[in-house]
Write a structure and sequence with these properties.
Shape: globular
Largest sheet: 2 strands, parallel
Helix content: 40-55%
Oligomer: single chain
Order of helices and strands: HEHEHH
Number of strands: 2
Number of helices: 4
Structural class: mainly alpha
């Protein structure tokens, strides 16, 4: 896996809280548990991580997403729980397309 080959000094994240299913802007349908899992993933893999708050136009969900992301990153239990969700199939194809493009552009720096 490429993420295991990537050994950055620091990771900067755009904390995209407008991807939540109840946010009026995007149609990605993440749950607050998704933000918890993302925080946990980065907290377990990397020591130097910072996140920039970006997006999140439903202020109630924004608060829950931030708390859950931080809880996951710090290895705590999630502050908020929500039923798992799924995004449209097109979202997965778009993710794969962009991921493969990014990997192709950055792969030379990882090996």
């Amino acid at each position: 896996r490429y993420i295991d080959k990537f050994k950055p000094d620091v990771i900067g994240l755009s904390a995209c809280f407008d991807a939540h299913l109840n946010d009026p802007l995007l149609d990605l349908k993440l749950s607050v548990m998704s933000y918890y899992k993302l925080g946990k993933l980065f907290g377990e893999r990397y020591d130097n991580v910072f996140a920039v708050l970006e997006g999140g136009y439903n202020v109630d969900i924004l608060t829950q997403g931030v708390y859950n992301f931080l809880a996951g990153y710090m290895g705590l239990n999630p502050a908020y729980k929500e039923k798992e969700t799924s995004s449209p199939l097109g979202t997965h194809f778009e993710y794969e397309l962009r991921s493969n493009s990014l990997i192709g552009a950055l792969k030379k720096y990882w090996e």
